[in-house]
Amino acid sequence: MKNTSRVTTFFLTGLPHPPALATALFGLFLVTYVFTVLGNLLILLVIRVDSRLHTPMYHFLTNLSFIDTWFSTVTVPKMLMTLVSPTGGAISFHSCVAQLYSFHFLGSTECFLYTVMSYDRYLAISYPLRYSSIMSGRMCALLAVGTWLSGSLHSAIQTILTFRLPYCGPNQIQHFFCDAPPILKLACADTSANEMVIFVDIGIVVSSCFLLIVLSYVSIVRSILRIRTSEGRHRAFQTCASHCIVVLFFFGPGMIIYLRPSSRDAVGAIVAVFYTVLTPLLNPVVYTLRNKEVQKALLKLKSGLVYLG
Description:
By secondary structure, this protein is mostly helical. Helix content is about 75%, strand content about 5%. Helix 1 runs antiparallel to helix 2 (about 55-85), helix 1 packs parallel to helix 9 and helix 3 (about 95-125) runs antiparallel to helix 5.
């Protein structure tokens, strides 16, 4: 990547808030971040130690928890620094590049992973007898690797298009982390072509993933309605409900920010909190409180720790 930038340091303005609320927001986001990391690490541990959870669905959930642990870590610690220190928003040019790449890499990988998880549920409910042969260990590995490689490619496009431009003047980023739309506003060159390509790239990724998820769940609902027993229908709906909740919280704010480029900075920063802070916390909550298999595995793990103690 050719760097013709004169700016060596950017300054993140942080999350818009009244100064009197800085301490309260710091405490709130710090607690949320700690619970996010611990919750996702707990899911990783439970799936690792319980052989009953070594299935395709939990293989993908392991990837999701790993992503969410780092997805939150990429943005939240820096946001906390901006809340407690006047100089906490300072970030070097290269650190900003790394943050933008990591954010889009993890975010787009999660986007692709939600699509794969909906396809997995579609196969499990629509083709229960053939599910094991279709979703083999090799297929799970290929799908997981495909999501990571696709996310890496998508993020590389975003990062290159953003930082190939010269930055020679203003250095205040109106956001709490380095993201393409607010950074492009600081460029000392025409950004219209870059903005258009970024908009189309994100639009294609988000829209295609969301459309595939919707199609998967339409097919799933049709299959569920054909189940004869009410208990079977209830279990099938319960299996998919948690995934639908998380998908809506992830895709909704993302569409508002990236598919509406004219939205105000303050609004975009506040909406971004949903998928950078709340969604990574929501995943362990939803997948544990609404999942009986994970609950049983947690009780088994707790019993084992009590016995060892």
